[in-house]
Design goal:
CATH architecture of the largest domain: Alpha-Beta Horseshoe
CATH class of the largest domain: Alpha Beta
Strand order of the largest sheet: 2-1-3-4-5-6-7
Strand content: 15-25%
Number of helices: 15
Mean pLDDT: 95
Shape: globular
Radius of gyration: 23 Å
Low-confidence stretches: none
CATH superfamily of the largest domain: tm_1862 like domain
CATH topology of the largest domain: pyruvate-formate lyase- activating enzyme
């Protein structure tokens, strides 16, 4: 019987996390030759898969990547796996939720938590586990030892140019991460606590290598992962580097030829409203194969914009929508409802702005506030929507002017708030 195997519970929600986590193994696979790797097959039950693996290996290392709204189903899953397999398994949890609440995640049954970005950490952890090395020498992890929960020192941020945004070995591809970290510490967003407030950009040659690899596998729709597309290549949040952005798009289109598509400002990235101007519109029109872009407004209240630390104005949003429509680009504008401290006046200002933007030709993407750990708003309760606000959103939806999972998010938000309170009241963490 072999000693170790590792199993990744990969699904469409955590694909981007796992392709980053597994990318170092393309380069350093020779360092973990004493371990076999398996990826969840979506047509099979995780319990059936672990059952089969447990027959051939003395230890099965199970890896989960978890976002906060998923924690309830993962709690049940971890508890059941522990009940069935006890010491036969080692459960490693990473992703935004465990990173924000690592010690609580240990209490939920995880054996080890990866904190923050983990390309380097994960590789070191695998080497340590398979060679019985001391885990305390690995930065940015949390684990339990002799009934004591240990959280190690934070690792330095990585150079993303050292790691790919795909894994050929595990056949994992998708949008290219071109920037990690964000200038703007929005109060509801967990990004800064995970990746820092100084963006790290993937260099041009590295991005073009990614495009070549994707094209080789006939993956010719090019999309990006970035907090905000138009600050690629800059170290100044107030200055767009138009030259390097246009060079990036030009070189990508050159590689694709006429046999691929470039998506600019669509999911999973967006564009900040103040970055929409005559110059960026020209670039979008010249290179983009999409006819719409996502613009992050979040609220129509100037007070709330300041409270959320958005660092743009209402006029920035209006100007962005006007410029888009003038150039036959459909503006899809994000708004978040139910943020803590939101007043009736704030909501009324938001609904008035939405009505105005819809008249200008915008489509609205409505969200409801989701509380996330390690954010400035963590611990504050969401604001309930009035019947009038709900009706407003439903009416716009019926007319085709609004979309989004805000109703489902309302339920998740309430459940998460209660969960956080229970966890923090039961522990000293």
């Amino acid at each position: 019987m072999k000693k170790f195997c590792i199993y990744f519970y990969l699904n469409k929600i955590n694909l981007y996390s796992f392709k980053a986590l597994l990318s170092p193994l393309d380069k350093y696979f020779d360092k973990v030759t004493n371990i076999d790797f398996f990826i969840h097959k979506k047509n099979l039950s995780i319990y059936d898969e672990i059952e089969e693996l447990s027959k051939s290996y003395r230890k099965v290392i199970i890896c989960f990547s978890i976002k906060s709204p998923e924690i309830f189903e993962y709690k049940i899953l971890i508890k059941e796996l522990k009940k069935r397999y006890k010491e036969k398994i080692i459960i490693i949890c990473g992703g935004p939720h465990p990173s924000g609440l690592p010690k609580i995640m240990i209490k939920e049954g995880a054996d080890i938590v990866l904190i923050g970005e983990s390309e380097e950490t994960f590789l070191k952890l695998l080497i340590a586990l398979t060679n019985d090395y001391d885990l305390k020498n690995i930065n940015s992890i949390c684990f339990k030892e002799n009934d004591l929960i240990i959280e190690t020192n934070k690792a330095n941020y990585i150079d993303i140019n050292e790691f790919n945004s795909y894994s050929e070995k595990f056949n994992l591809y998708g949008p290219i991460e071109i920037t990690r970290g964000c200038f703007y510490a929005c109060s509801y967003c967990q990004l800064n606590s995970l990746f820092g407030c100084r963006p790290r950009h993937r260099n041009l040659d590295n991005i073009l290598k990614h495009v070549e690899v994707l094209k080789k596998y006939n993956l010719k729709d090019i999309r990006f992962i970035t907090p905000s597309l138009f600050y690629y290549g800059t170290d100044n949040p107030k200055k767009i580097n138009l030259e390097i952005i246009e060079k990036l798009f030009y070189e990508i289109k050159k590689i694709l030829g006429g046999d691929g598509r470039l998506f600019i400002g669509t999911f999973p990235s967006e564009v900040r409203p103040e970055h929409i101007n005559n110059e960026t519109i020209i670039i979008i029109k010249k290179y983009a194969d999409n006819n719409n872009i996502i613009i992050g407004a979040q609220t129509g209240s100037e007070r709330l914009l300041n409270f959320l630390n958005r660092k743009h104005s209402i006029n920035d949003v209006i100007n962005a929508v006007v410029l888009c429509k003038k150039n036959n680009i459909i503006p899809k504008v994000d708004f978040i409802f139910g943020t803590p401290t939101e007043t009736d006046t704030d909501t009324r200002d938001t609904l008035n702005l939405i009505s105005y933007l819809v008249k200008l030709g915008a489509i609205i993407h409505a969200h409801y506030y989701i509380p996330l750990p390690n954010t400035k708003l963590f611990g504050l309760e969401s604001t309930k929507l009035t019947p009038e606000t709900k009706k407003f959103l439903e009416d716009l939806t019926s007319k085709g002017f609004l979309y989004g999972n805000w109703k489902k998010q309302m339920l998740i938000s309430k459940k998460l708030y209660q969960y956080y309170n229970n966890c923090l009241n039961e522990t000293s963490y």
